[in-house]
Specification:
8 helices, 14% strand, Rossmann fold, 242 residues, binds NADP nicotinamide-adenine-dinucleotide phosphate, alpha/beta, single chain
């Protein structure tokens, strides 16, 4: 992929990995639109980094529909969609799980990715070189016990992305997956150690993106992938209590 002179939509671009991707892509002369729920946060980032914004909650059907309409009406020339927005609940399934939390997590982490991909594909197919980039996780390969729904959604994104890539073979739409390890963002505040920075994720993403590496394994996920290939049991035991 050409990493400059694109028009890019990044869901969840107001903090963490999404924001680092937005800043990096902006510095490479791309037009960048970021989305999120918190309007004040979006406006602050828009002002600071000269980004365009759209406010919506991707867990909400109306929010997804309004984003789809706004893109078609105002930005039909977008040629890169980065499905990055995500959230994680840590819960045990005996004491503090609720249907609401399960539904919210699945809507944001998986359903929104599939819905936005399907809604934007016709637009991307009519464009020049185009891409869908889905942010999954190393936890798509081996789960941690504290986040069963999160890991399931990321494994879902992993398989969805692969199958969509097969469907797009022979078209102008390239389908990428980014698999980060533990990254130092608001999502992981107070959890884990040996985190990498969101800026490091963005740097590695760009290197893979411009070489058309369709599965971009970031940092330690490269090693995890190798271990998983040799022994899924060992890979599982490494991440189980993460
Ligand atoms: N951090 C890690 O260690 C790690 C590792 C592997 C993969 N990932 C994945 O990387 C992606 C980004 O995570 P992050 O760590 O950068 O998280 P983050 O800093 O918490 O940022 C999440 C972004 O998503 C937006 N968002 C959250 N819920 C939303 C909703 N319902 N509707 C619309 N936007 C929503 C947030 O904005 P608002 O709060 O304003 O809505 C924010 O912009 C996620 O898909 C995550 O699963 C993260």
């Amino acid at each position: 992929m050409n990493v400059s002179y694109n028009k890019v939509l990044i869901t969840g671009g107001s903090s963490g990995i999404g924001l680092a991707l937005a800043i990096k892509l902006k510095s490479l002369n791309n037009y960048v639109i970021i989305t999120g729920r918190d309007r004040a946060k979006l406006e602050k980032m828009a002002y600071q980094y000269k980004l365009d914004t759209y406010q919506c909650d991707l867990a909400d059907q109306g929010g997804v529909q309004s984003l789809i309409k706004a893109v078609h009406d105002q930005h039909p020339d977008i040629n890169i969609i980065i499905n990055n927005a995500g959230m994680q609940y840590n819960y045990d399934f005996i004491n503090n799980v609720s249907f609401e939390k399960i539904e919210y997590e699945v809507e944001v982490n998986f359903n929104a990715v599939a819905k936005l991909s399907s809604a934007f594909l016709p637009m991307l197919l009519g464009n020049k070189e185009a891409a869908i980039v889905n942010v999954s996780s190393g936890l798509a390969l081996s789960p941690k016990k504290s986040a069963p729904v999160y890991c399931a959604t990321k494994a879902g994104v992993h398989m969805f992305t692969k199958a969509l890539r097969y469907q797009m073979e022979g078209t102008n739409v390239k389908v990428f997956e980014v698999l980060p390890p533990l990254v130092d963002t608001p999502m992981t505040a107070g959890n884990g150690k040996d985190k990498i920075s969101p800026e490091a994720v963005a740097e590695e993403f760009i290197l893979g993106f411009e070489k058309n590496k369709f599965e971009i394994n970031i940092g330690k996920v490269k090693l995890l992938k190798m271990i998983h290939r040799i022994s899924p049991v060992i890979a599982d035991s490494i991440l189980k209590n993460n």
